[in-house]
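ok so i was messing around last nite and threw this chain in just to see what happens. nothing serious, just curious
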Amino acid sequence: MSSTSEIPVTVLTGYLGSGKTTLLNRILSTASDLRIAVIENEAGEIGIDQDLVIRSVESLIATNGGCVCCAVRDDLIEALSDVLNAEHPPDRIVIETSGLADPAPIAQTFFDTARFRDRLRLDGIVTLVDAKHSWLHLDESSEACKQIALADRLVINKADLVEAATLDALEQRLERLNSGAVRLRACHAEVPVEDLLEVGGFDRERAFNLATEPDSRFESEALRPMAERRGPLAHAHQDDVSTVSLVEDAALDGDAVAGWLTILLRVQGEDLFRTKGILHVRGMKERFVIQAVHMMLDGGPDRPWAPDEPRKSRLVFIGRNLDRGALLAGLRSCIASPVPS
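result:
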């Protein structure tokens, strides 16, 4: 899915007031050796945020009215086309969504828009979380929950404004919403920019590993508290968004998997925010990697299985009202029948 000729795209999202523009300016200032095109979107008729963005690296493109994250994505597609048709295409694109946006349709744009498949690469979704006000946002806004559930990186901003116990409780809640996203604590959106770029969240080679195996760079107490440190929850709210991770050692039947996932995404796609996995399909020498955002599914053969690599299927579902038992039964229904001797 990735290629050196493709321009990586980072989607920067987060609820109102979380610090997206501050983080965007930090990226532009720190990565000054890169030509970065910014696609900025604001809700409302009068744009303010676009006037706060540093313009020294690359010109900023503002979408015309409405949200780039709505069902009609003509503005976004047109903006991306303008970037690609520029005399000097950028090294990277950053899309900053409005604070009330659902980022899923943006991700879907890179799945189902043929003209972008060979020229753009969705690298990852970075979500800002306001440590002080996020409890209210998560309780009252489905958009805030989806922004977190779809993230590859969660930047917990304004960490200096709350006590340590509150911050730890917030991390526990974020873990339930999206256990695969790496979490970074920040004050004034100050995080290492290199940890936000080249994430590989939608890369067939890297995405699944990042979602299921801890990255050693983020194992320190300051950035990613270990499970042993977690105390009782400080908040009684029960989120209906969760992560389900499944592992199956037996080889799968490719046709059965295709049929199961097609029906699953068709029926439950609205509640399945992200699906990703590496599959061991009988008869294939390569790993089969899938990525889905809601009903949009992308998949294909990846690199060959390494000689010493356990051949097993691993799937991660992030969404609302997930039934682990039903998902596990569906996966096991795809186990290939024994080959007659």
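not much to say yet. The chain has two domains: 7-229, 241-332.
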